[in-house]
């Protein structure tokens, strides 16, 4: 495989720290009740429907019907989703800036609700304006690790697989990138990623 010249990032838990707890710990004062709500009601598996393109109005109505005692809390997930992603992960804004300023083309493939993405992207425009293209799963109704989202992204970005390295925190998503002919790196932190990108000649 040829050395890559571009970097494709995941967003949640690579560039930014996403955790629903950041929002709901402000709203549910008891830790055990908070843990139970996030484990059994508003779960990450439930949220994955938004990444796949289902409207929040539908999913929240269904969940509230199943758990009417939590209807008010469920209703806040969408309007206050931004609060689940309060900050970038350590060192990542600096790394993106360095790559961009050295001329490395930057792209992203993110499993993210098409409804929730625009407010977050606008909030973080200083970072995302450095990206030449971003594929959002909720808009495409395709989610990683579906091979189709990688094929769509490469076509849209104008890249061959060997042109790019893909960075994600999930092993299955990285494996799917390899299967699509893309260099893949499993993200465990900015320092390790910096070393991995340097080894590929990108830093």
Automatic annotation (TrEMBL):
Gene3D superfamilies in UniProt: HAD superfamily/HAD-like
The entry's keywords: Hydrolase
Any Pfam family: Hydrolase
InterPro entries xref list: HAD-like_sf (IPR036412), HAD-SF_hydro_IA (IPR006439), HAD_sf (IPR023214)
GO MF annotation terms: (S)-2-haloacid dehalogenase activity
Domain of life: Bacteria
EC number(s) recorded for this UniProt protein: 3.8.1.2
Protein name (Swiss-Prot/TrEMBL): 2-haloacid dehalogenase
Organism lineage string: Bacteria, Pseudomonadati, Pseudomonadota, Alphaproteobacteria, Sphingomonadales
């Amino acid at each position: 495989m040829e050395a890559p010249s571009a970097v494709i990032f995941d967003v949640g838990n690579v560039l930014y720290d996403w955790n629903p707890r950041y929002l709901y710990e402000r709203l549910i004062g008891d830790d055990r009740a908070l843990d139970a709500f996030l484990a059994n009601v508003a779960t990450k598996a439930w949220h994955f429907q938004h990444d796949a393109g289902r409207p929040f109005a539908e999913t929240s109505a269904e969940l509230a019907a199943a758990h009417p005692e939590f209807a008010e809390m469920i209703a806040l997930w969408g309007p206050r989703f931004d609060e689940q992603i309060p900050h970038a992960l350590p060192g990542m804004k600096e790394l993106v800036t360095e790559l961009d300023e050295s001329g490395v083309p930057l792209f992203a493939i993110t499993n993210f609700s098409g409804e929730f993405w625009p407010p977050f992207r606008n909030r973080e425009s200083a970072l995302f304006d450095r990206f030449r293209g971003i594929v959002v799963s909720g808009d495409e109704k395709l989610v990683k690790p579906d091979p189709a989202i990688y094929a769509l992204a490469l076509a849209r970005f104008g890249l061959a697989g060997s042109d790019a390295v893909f960075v994600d925190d999930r092993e299955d998503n990285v494996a799917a990138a390899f299967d699509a002919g893309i260099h893949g790196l499993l993200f465990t932190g900015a320092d390790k990623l910096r070393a991995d990108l340097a080894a590929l000649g990108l830093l």
